[in-house]
Design a protein that fits this description.
- The complex is a heterodimer of chains A (548) and B (428).
- Chain A contains seven helices and 33 strands.
- By secondary structure, chain A is an alpha/beta fold.
- Chain A is globular, with a radius of gyration of 26 Å.
- With 428 residues, chain B is α+β, with helices and mostly antiparallel strands.
- In chain B, the strands form five sheets. In chain B, strands 1, 2, 3, 5, 6, 7 and 8 form a seven-stranded antiparallel β-sheet that branches. A three-stranded antiparallel β-sheet of chain B has the order 12-11-16.
- Classes of the chains: A alpha/beta (548), B alpha+beta (428).
- Chain B: Keywords: Signal.
- Chain B: This is Cytochrome c domain-containing protein.
- Chain B: It comes from Litoribacillus peritrichatus.
Chain lengths: 548, 428
């Protein structure tokens, strides 16, 4: 029989090793650096824990983030050396792991050469020794995902790093209860299309808590949640991905205290057509820092290939979003972009043909109820660009003599076309496409915008210091299209009834005409995980960001 | 490192079966057995005398005359032979013990041009129930057995071949359980939880030697194709995934099969042999996927036949993941890739929502800069779906699991289908 009975044998062996090691050198001589010593130390400690159940003080039984392994933890390949392939050990441990197990991957750098699939896990904790202490290299592996969790309940994934996954780093599908913490998904080297797609990737899941993670180099989204509900994403770092953090077709998400830097777009909220969960909403993006997201778009394809480089925050066809108290600095196109799906596909007449099925379920190209307030914006628009924005950029920034407006690119840019068409009654026929009663009840419609549907901006702060002013003379709100069909100065429609981009703009602070409105605040999200609640109305009641 | 040594050892001892040698004689001498007897009256059944699980804890070491049902129901045995499914336990390609019956599918999942030997074992006194669109409703105790063998030459599937692996799907009280066995010796196959990677497998296909690394999937991978996952309806929805077989749906069984004494429609035969119930009397009302195999001349098919074959191909190769609720009996479940928005079940009508087949749909996850949509009607070369079938790149290939080579005939079929689709908004 090739399959070893892992746990009892290891515990015995570990205890033996500990005793031997203690006689020779002492168990506690783990310096945490040298792989061999460190691993032996870990072995010894595991034995001690198994023997007296009091291992919590031993640094080799605690991750670098402070998570102490329970005494019944299952240790995967505890004697593995740096560079060893731990695939088979990991698969065996996970295959047999009963409900409530803690599976500990060893300390060091290891090779994994296949997708690790875990189905229907129940209260599983998969952990390493720390975000930089357990490194798993998937270079040359078979399969597209590094880790894939399919269905399951209350799964914790923590304290390890996934490197060079073929496609996605840690994918989680159909799970209720996901806690991803102190994990890293990393593609090193140049930012290229053949880097992986998604880093941390919960999909069609419920109750998702993502905190203290790190994602780098993803050619799609580094930290992503899709078609899910009840989501808290906090205290993560997304660096040098196409999309830093992305919430897609998801309901009830709080995204706060994160850092997005060096991405093409820092933080994205998208509703894309054609998905099972047709639309999302009630997404709050607050107290994040999103700066210098100026990487050229290196996506190999997919929806994020539209993201303009230099984007701090992009809200794309999602209604019900509140963006506040974020610090948005040095994003070279715009600090915040708000766009309907018409930005990506302007073929309005063909929407019923192209998207009729998904529009029936409530997906809408429209964007409504987006409230931007108290954001701090600095040095926005130094080098505006992006395939989809070329005409808009030229229109705002080209010198007046060349037919432009000679302005700095607006720091808050709103497309406005969907609202204009709705207000003009031009999309009313789409109302007949909606068959999903929940969507109708949720207010999905193509009627003229009501006060609650508006896109609003107030109390946003131009934080440019004097030295920056020569380069950033304007910090503006811009509307590509005016939203009032009766407006004649300038007119929003030409003589043939086609909408005309009017490239309106107004200073960010004291905006009296553009986006000058307020909206009801959105409700905080609660994540329930293993019986506890997390988020601003859960474990973060005392978090200052939650009182903003 | 251990894996490698192990793997070398195993590669060295792969079983070469010359099926023409002697083995065929066995079936003659056993012809008094059940599987080759002529159709009989309804009162008797092909699985008479097969035995059945009795609810007791089984043993992998039990000496049983026929199938070791109790072990199948309760034990994960180390060796395939422990279950005593075949008269000759070293040959999983012929002569099942009583209760087992061979079957074939009209259009099959592609697995590196491997030949597949399929058997269904139904316990004595039990029957499967016909269902229109989903896998037949097999009783508890049913075992589906599939053996993968790589022929030396795909033109001579009766010739020499390498038997690689045998996969069991066992219908236990708790649901379906997958057990993968790898033929690591001449005489028996061993449970292979962690899968196997077998380098330098070779088959000659259309005069060309294909050399590739064959992947025996690990046990945990079984769920990737064989489960439907809950579409969670909210934060209080705590349903889990459900494991399901894929192939034995009425539409894929609704074809003739060569039995020992005659060729006959499988569904009719199963009904006559007493292991299938409730088959509609009028067979023309039963969904029927066309026969598509590597000898099908795609150029000779009508446009409608191409559509039909392509839908059958997409169904059996993709729709175990790429399926939505459609005809699933469990509400709010979907295939693991249902969330991608591409759902290609055979019983889905293309014209109802072409986007579900990928038409003009921009890939949600990933994508590739050279392809503008999953399916661009009338432009196969611009269709990402076809590219994914045509590449072995781990990042882009589809299906994700189960193939290391490109199925050229499948690619040709889907290309013909895309090029024959009605123009859509993204058609150039």
């Amino acid at each position: 029989m090739k399959n070893r009975n892992l746990k009892p044998a290891w515990l015995k062996k570990s205890l033996y090793l500990c005793l031997t090691a203690a006689l020779l050198a002492g168990c506690s001589s783990d310096d945490g650096k040298d792989g061999t010593n460190g691993l032996n130390g870990a072995d010894g400690a595991a034995g001690a824990a198994g023997a007296d159940g009091n291992g919590n003080q031993d640094p080799s039984l605690v991750t670098t983030s402070g998570y102490a392994f329970p005494s019944d933890a299952i240790f995967v390949a505890p004697n593995a050396q740096d560079g060893d392939n731990i695939t088979a050990d990991l698969l065996l441990a996970l295959f047999d792991a009963p409900a409530g197990s803690t599976v500990v991957m060893p300390k060091g750098s290891f090779v994994v050469d296949e997708t690790i699939t875990v189905a229907n896990a129940n209260e599983l904790t998969l952990t390493g020794y720390g975000i930089t202490d357990t490194k798993l290299d998937f270079t040359g592996a078979t399969g597209d995902d590094a880790f894939r969790f399919e269905a399951g309940l209350d799964i914790t994934i923590r304290d390890f790093g996934v490197y060079e996954a073929n496609k996605n780093g840690i994918k989680v599908v159909g799970v209720n209860g996901v806690h991803l913490t102190y994990t890293a998904t990393i593609w090193e080297g140049a930012l290229e299309a053949d880097n992986g797609a998604y880093g941390l990737y919960p999909l069609q899941s419920q109750n998702i808590l993502m905190e203290h993670n790190y994602a780098r180099g993803s050619a799609d989204a580094g930290i992503y949640v899709g078609q899910s509900n009840n989501i808290v994403v906090r205290n993560n770092i997304a660096k040098e991905n196409v999309a830093g953090i992305e919430i897609e077709n998801s309901n009830n998400a709080d995204v706060y205290n994160n850092l997005a830097v060096g991405n093409t777009g820092g933080i994205l909220v998208f509703d894309l057509p054609g998905l099972d969960q047709a639309y999302g909403g009630n997404v709050r993006v607050f107290n994040n820092e999103s700066y210098a997201n100026n990487a050229e778009n290196f996506a190999g394809g997919g929806a994020v290939s539209i993201v303009p480089p230099g984007t701090g925050i992009l809200i794309f066809a999602t209604s019900g979003v509140e963006i506040y108290n974020n610090t948005l600095t040095d994003n070279e196109t715009s600090a915040i972009e708000i766009a309907s799906y018409f930005l990506s596909d302007a073929d309005v007449a063909n929407y019923p043909a192209n998207y009729g099925g998904t529009m029936a379920n409530g997906w809408s190209p429209q964007i409504k109820n987006v409230y931007m307030h108290d954001n701090i914006i600095k040095r926005s628009g130094a080098n505006p660009r992006g395939t989809l924005l070329t005409d808009i950029v030229n229109g705002y920034t080209a010198p007046v003599a060349l037919g432009g407006k000679g302005e700095t690119m607006p720091a808050i840019l709103y497309g406005g076309i969907g609202e204009l068409l709705s207000n003009a009654g031009a999309l009313a026929a789409f109302n007949g496409l909606i068959t999903d009663q929940d969507a109708i009840d949720d207010g999905v419609n193509y009627n003229p915008y009501t006060a609650a549907d508006l896109i609003c901006a107030n109390n946003n702060i131009n934080d440019n210091e004097a030295a920056a002013l020569p380069q950033f003379p304007d910090v503006n709100i811009g509307l590509v299209y005016g939203t009032d069909p009766t407006d004649n100065a300038p007119a929003n429609f030409d003589g043939d009834g086609n909408p005309v981009p009017t490239l309106r703009s107004e200073p960010l602070q004291g905006n009296a005409t553009l986006l000058n409105c307020t909206l009801d605040r959105l409700a905080p999200t609660e994540v329930t995980f293993r019986g506890k609640t997390y988020g601003c109305s859960g474990d973060d009641l005392a978090e200052p960001a939650c009182s903003l | 490192m251990k894996m490698k040594e192990l793997h070398k050892l195993m590669c060295g001892s792969l079983v070469l079966l010359a099926t023409t040698l002697g083995l065929s004689a066995c079936s003659d001498s056993d012809s008094s057995g059940s599987s080759s007897s002529a159709p009989t009256a309804n009162s008797s059944s092909v699985n008479d005398g097969a035995g059945a699980p009795d609810g007791q804890e089984g043993s992998c070491d039990a000496e049983t005359i026929g199938v070791n049902w109790n072990a199948l129901m309760t034990k994960t045995c180390p060796n395939l032979s422990d279950y005593n499914l075949f008269k000759d336990s070293s040959d999983p390609t012929d002569n099942p013990n009583t209760g087992g019956m061979p079957y074939g599918l009209s259009t099959a999942l592609f697995t590196d041009y491997a030949t597949k030997y399929r058997y269904v074992f139904v316990p004595e006194g039990e029957k499967a129930e016909y269902t229109e669109n989903e896998v037949l409703d097999f009783p508890v105790g049913t075992v589906l057995v599939k053996t993968f063998a790589l022929p030396e030459n795909t033109a001579f599937r009766d010739g020499a071949e390498t038997v690689i692996e045998t996969r069991l799907l066992v219908h236990r009280e708790s649901g379906w359980k997958a057990l993968p066995y790898y033929w690591d010796t001449e005489n028996d196959a061993s449970l292979a939880i962690t899968g196997k990677s077998i380098a330098n497998m070779t088959t000659n296909h259309n005069g060309v030697d294909l050399n590739f690394t064959y992947q025996v999937p690990k046990a945990t991978s079984c769920t990737s194709c064989h489960s439907v996952v809950p579409i969670l309806q909210g934060p209080d929805d705590r349903r889990q995934a459900i494991f399901k077989p894929i192939g034995p749906k009425a539409r894929f069984l609704n074809r003739d099969f060569d039995y020992a004494d005659s060729s006959m429609n499988q569904l009719v035969y199963w009904q006559e042999q007493g292991i299938l119930d409730n088959l509609p009397a009028d067979l023309s009302t039963v969904s029927k996927a066309p026969v598509f195999d590597d000898s099908t001349d795609i150029g000779a098919l009508t446009a409608a036949e191409v559509d039909d074959a392509a839908k059958a191909y997409l169904d059996i190769n993709c729709a175990h993941c790429h399926r939505s609720e459609l005809s699933l009996p469990e509400p709010n479940y979907a295939g693991p890739a249902g969330s991608s928005g591409v759902n290609v079940e055979y019983n889905r009508v293309y014209a109802d929502n072409p986007t579900k087949f990928g038409t003009c749909k921009v890939p949600v996850a990933g994508g590739h800069e050279d392809y503008s949509a999953d399916v661009v009607p009338q432009d196969a070369g611009d269709s990402y779906l076809l590219f994914r079938m045509s590449t072995n790149d781990q990042r882009h290939r589809m299906p994700e699991l189960g193939r290391s080579t490109v199925h050229q005939e499948g690619v040709d079929l889907i290309a013909a289908w895309i090029n024959g689709l009605p123009a859509a908004s993204c058609t150039p």
